[in-house]
User: What shape does this take?
Amino acid sequence: MKSILVSTVLLLATMSLASAQEQKKTPLSPKAETSATLNGKTVSIQYSSPQMRNRKIFGELVPFGQVWRAGADNATSLHTDADLMIGPLIVPKGDYTIYVLPNQTEWSLIINKQTGQWGTEYHEEQDLGRVQMLLKDASNPIEGFKITLSGAGKKGMLQLEWANTIATVPVEAK
Assistant: This one.
């Protein structure tokens, strides 16, 4: 009886340790955030960063001509404490979701008014607007999807990069 009890305790301890180690593994698409201070106001983006993992990204995993969540898992969220100009689009201060419409030669950044949804839940009628992004080839493959907000003073840049593609659009705080 005593050996059964000891065996049971050891089995439970091993299972508990295995479960704890499993939970500590890095997620396939870790959460990420970028922010910038433009004209004294904070602009931030929260997203999940998928990895290439030996896959062809644009044109396959992310099909051309279809709206993409600009990340993984939950929809990519934009919060701004300032009224913005993203390219020619006026974006009032508040909370938004970012999507992208990638094509082989051009991308459109989509600013959507719906927030808090799963990334694949997209409703075009909620679009605030769309902005063309400038594309260039990356000099080396970029393993993890990355969004960067940078800038000083009133002007900044929003950059999305992954695989062999870098897409940018200017941002200005009003």
Observations:
- Strands lie at 31-38, 41-48, 76-80, 84-86, 89-91, 94-102, 107-112, 127-152, 155-173.
- The mean pLDDT is 90.
- The longest strand covers residues 127-152.
